[in-house]
Amino acid sequence: MPGLLFAAVVLVTAAVWVLRGMGRRRARAASRRGPGTSLAEAIPVSSFETIDEAVTARRCHCGAGVRAVGEGTRELDGRRFRYARVECDACEDEQVLYFDVTAVFH
Ligand SMILES: [Zn+2]
User: Fold this and answer.
1) How many A from CA of 1 to the centre of ligand 1?
2) Number of domains present in the structure of the chain
3) How many angstroms does the Cα of residue 82 sit away from the middle of ligand 1?
4) Which long-range contacts does 53-58 make (Cβ < 8 Å, 24+ apart)?
5) Do 99 and 80 touch, CB atoms closer than 8 A?
6) Ligand 1 center to residue 43 CA distance, Å?
7) Do 60 and 26 belong together in one domain?
8) Are 42 and 72 in a shared domain?
9) Per residue in 1-42, pLDDT tens?
10) Residue-wise pLDDT tens digits, 37-78
């Protein structure tokens, strides 16, 4: 029975270590999911000002603000998209935010 207890302690310790080590990576990965993180999940907007507001409101996974460092357009299946490349002010992590601007042109 002590062997089983030891194994359980090792397992819990390893789990805590893995969770701590991957905490930051997981936060980073989580910030790459959800609305605006891909063309499939592009945020529908009715004006270009909304894009600026969304970029301003965006927070990096580290908690700092981001700023736009580039932008571009894409067209897919008759829909128009605009994307903004943003960079974190603190950790310089880059991310791309996608917006569905089809409604702007209608
Ligand atoms: Zn950051």
Assistant:
1) 47
2) 2
3) 23
4) 54/97, 54/99, 55/84, 55/86, 55/97, 58/86, 58/97
5) no
6) 21
7) no
8) yes
9) 788 899 999 999 888 888 877 788 888 888 888 899 999 999
10) 999 999 999 999 999 999 999 999 999 999 999 999 999 999
